[in-house]
Amino acid sequence: MTTDPSESTSVAGQPGGLAGASSPATPLAVAALACCLSVGIWLAVREIERVAKAVESHQVSLEALEQTVEAIPSKLGDGAGAGSGRAGSGRVIGATTISDGRLMLADADGRLVVVAADGAGALSIERVYRLEVDVAGPGPRHGVRLTDLSADRDSVIAAAMMEVGRLTPDSMEAARNAARVEELVGRVAAAGGFDVLLDELKHERAIRRRAAAVALGEHGFRAAVGVLIESANDSKDARRLQVHRLLARLTGVERDSPDASQETIQKWRKWWDETGSGLHRYERAP
Q1: pTM for the model
Q2: Is the per-residue pLDDT at 173 higher than 80?
Q3: Is 104 helix (H, G, I), strand (E, B) or coil?
Q4: Do 228 and 246 contact (CB within 8 A), yes or no?
Q5: Helix or strand (DSSP H, E) at 9
Q6: How many other C-beta atoms can be found within 10 angstroms of the C-beta atom of residue 20?
Q7: What is the DSSP letter of 70?
Q8: For residues 65 and 115, what is the distance between their CA atoms, to the nearest angstrom?
């Protein structure tokens, strides 16, 4: 297939369905039904095997793929308003290799997801599409349209991160604009820009790292723990308590009080030292 998936594509639907019959069941009909059920089960098993084969060829676990798909907001493409950052079901129902290092997944929320795999188990989401009924298409069953759900999201994220960059040219300006940076980063998270924020965890500006870690932590991303620990002793009470709440949730190590003791902070640090390197990029707390 040579069609560019970034463009909306209309594909003619095929008429289908069998005419129903009102005659009573016969042994032949029962046998035919049993045969259909057997074929259906066989096809389901083959599909599971096909997904597993496509996944294994990229050295990636199915669990990692489902965590990746779960990271995509279920309302991606509906704008960046309140609630649009809610995660989808995460259930992968189909997968196929489309090129070296790239998989096309189908999820239970009716989306097609292009995922890049680096061969060492690391994944990143490239594009997200939805197959929708094209009522203007030909045929009695119309057709389907492939819609790029990433386009609106990308423009929101790009605008927000451009302003973040403008507000943080140096450490002094970053500190002065911290509240606005946190607001913009929250907007990126609401739009589902988790890949961008995961990369921000390595930024040289502490303000940007912390804002990204808090936003990711609120969405359950365990990759934020290391940066959150950096802020565990923040002098501002409200910020420190927020960080402690997130660390308890992400690590599963409970606080001894809302304002955690140094002993608890050390337990969080120990958890990160022992667990952090083995976390999947999109792994979330239960």
Answers
A1: 0.59
A2: yes
A3: strand
A4: yes
A5: strand 9-12
A6: 5
A7: H
A8: 9
